[in-house]
Amino acid sequence: MDNVKETVIEILKDLTGEDFSENLDENLYDSALLDSMGTVQLLLELQDQLGIEAPVSEFDRNEWDTPAKIIEKVEAMKQ
Amino acid sequence: MRWFVPYGNPTYFLWLALAIIPLMIGLLYGRRFRGYQTLISFFFLLLTFGGPNWRTGIALIGYFIYQILLVSGYSYYRQRKGSANKGWVFIGAVILAILPLVIVKVTPAIENGRQSIIGFLGISYITFKVVQTIMETRDGIIKEFHPVLFGQFLLFFPTISSGPIDRYRRFLTDYEKVPPQSEYLNLIQTGVRYIFTGFVYKFILAYFFGTMLMPIVERRALLAHGFSWNIVAYMYVYSMDLFFDFAGYSLFAVGISYLMGIKTPMNFNQPFKSKNIKDFWNRWHMTLSFWFRDYIFMRLVFFFMKHKVFKSRVTTANVCYVINMLIMGFWHGETWFYITYGLFHGVALVINDTWLRYKKKHQAVIPHNKLTELFAIFLTFNVVCFSFLIFSGFLNTLFFGPHRF
Asked: I need a surface site. Which of A53, B70, B275, B382 has the fewest CB within 10 A?
């Protein structure tokens, strides 16, 4: 479990240059930290590092817009 | 019986109000009269595609049956247990889905402006819905195909002629339930407000710019032969007309949808306040640009990155911007001005990103304040209006068209 959280935070740090471990509820799109490019990179990294097969159409911006929600989604998909 | 362009005149609205009230009463009391909704949908489709337009009505029916069969076939293939999910079957299905649209768009270009007999009002918007459904079926997100519900989605009459482009899964969640009464009352309130704002946009502002001002500036620009300030005037007048006409129409479509308990997504969000071109595409014809973002741009980026086609992220993004906007240009029609419009926006997005990266790197020395923001809005507005001048085809009339004066 913690492994997923750490990995997601690490990936987001690489993509946006920010550490979200204290701000799990920050909206990544409103603050323009993530765009379409970043989103695709995020999906590819999740695939590489955690083996999550998330197609682009799975990605509903409202459901993946904060680090906390991403972690939750990934954990649900891992099971 | 008279025949109507959707939202074209007061009588159409009168019919709408009369037809929709029983549906609204049902929704208020927790029921959706589906049979009745289908009946009035048929009536409004008949108002647009019947009478003198009956040929386009036949084309619509043929197109509809073709796409239902296609998506059924692909869903059957994809949703079977242990489906092979081959890439070429998916690509074949997408090609077959856009084939009618391609024929309709290419015919005038190769046959001296003659329209194809399989065309009808709104074909390009329905095609988006079909392609999107095939893509999500391929991804396994749409897990079951229901021809009747899919048909309701494709032919949803408030948005049939020019969008906004809804998504199958989103549409279905609204269509299959009835909103709680308090939520529905809010929808009515917002819907009515949208419709009245639409009246102001379409019948006052678009009328002023498009019907009153446009012929005057157009004539002046044509009389001036070649470049003149009149072209600049035409550019602004055309841009205003384009916005108020299309945003007005979209407000009607969204407003009527709300009254029917369907939350069709919004198409415009104050686009002339955009601070850059990327911002503009998040505010202008949003359901179209988001469609392109989700089903073309992101998929291209995904493909290129996964197969490591380009070394850098920047190159990948730039190539995808240009391809994305070029396809949008081709979608508008096979003329030099639509394609140039697409290319123009592709290049504008590349320049925009390059500038933003440069600015971020040199944050310390490049000022950022209210004044620079105002300048950014001003610049974006003018770049956008210039792109609309290309889009309008007026330059074509002016420089390559037959001389009318």
From this structure: A53
